[in-house]
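Action item from last meeting closed. Structure (192 res):
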């Protein structure tokens, strides 16, 4: 599993209806993308759910590097570039993935943590795996994933929810659409 996210911060007075319309018109285009586990079309709206900014921030879990590369280099990502310029696309290597019992996703939480320079890396990975497992068992959780950017030693935890939750710490996003053609093929548990 590979995680990918780009976050486009928009002006404070930006009409977020433009993004909602964009997702309504184009969200289905990745509903059958080869190699994609899932794509959560995420927004933050200034003044709602504690957000200080307007942002469009899709989050992806890829089953294959080839699928991710086909998206980045083969045309899918070009639509974002054409409309917003080329944002930085962060990538993380998967550590763990767990399914929850929740239904329709309405919210997502992305937590980021800088890893300490001391300690055993195996302990960090086991802790991240345990955190994903615990989050997935919470009421309303659809799924939880943990991944790491080894160039920055940053851990990211991503989870989808039926409702707002205090169980997960991090930035809260609204889910506008979920494309999940390969969600059932994302390997569960720890990924090493």
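Sequence:
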């Amino acid at each position: 599993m590979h995680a990918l996210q780009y976050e486009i911060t928009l002006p404070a007075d930006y009409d977020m209806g433009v993004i909602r319309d964009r997702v309504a018109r184009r969200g289905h285009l990745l509903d059958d993308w080869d190699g994609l586990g899932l794509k959560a079309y995420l927004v933050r709206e200034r003044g709602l759910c504690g957000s200080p900014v307007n942002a469009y921030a899709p989050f992806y879990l890829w089953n294959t590097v080839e699928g991710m590369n086909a998206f980045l280099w083969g045309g899918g990502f070009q639509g974002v570039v054409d409309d917003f310029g080329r944002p930085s696309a962060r990538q993380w290597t998967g550590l763990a993935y767990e399914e929850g019992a929740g239904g329709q996703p309405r919210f997502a939480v992305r937590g980021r943590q800088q890893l300490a320079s001391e300690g055993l890396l195996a302990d960090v990975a086991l802790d991240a795996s345990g955190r994903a497992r615990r989050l997935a068992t919470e009421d309303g959780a659809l799924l939880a994933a943990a991944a790491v950017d080894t160039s920055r030693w940053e851990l990211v935890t991503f989870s989808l929810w039926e409702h707002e939750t205090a169980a997960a710490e991090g930035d809260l996003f609204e889910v506008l659409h979920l494309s999940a053609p390969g969600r059932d093929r994302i390997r569960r548990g720890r990924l090493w």
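Note appended to the action item: The mean pLDDT is 95.
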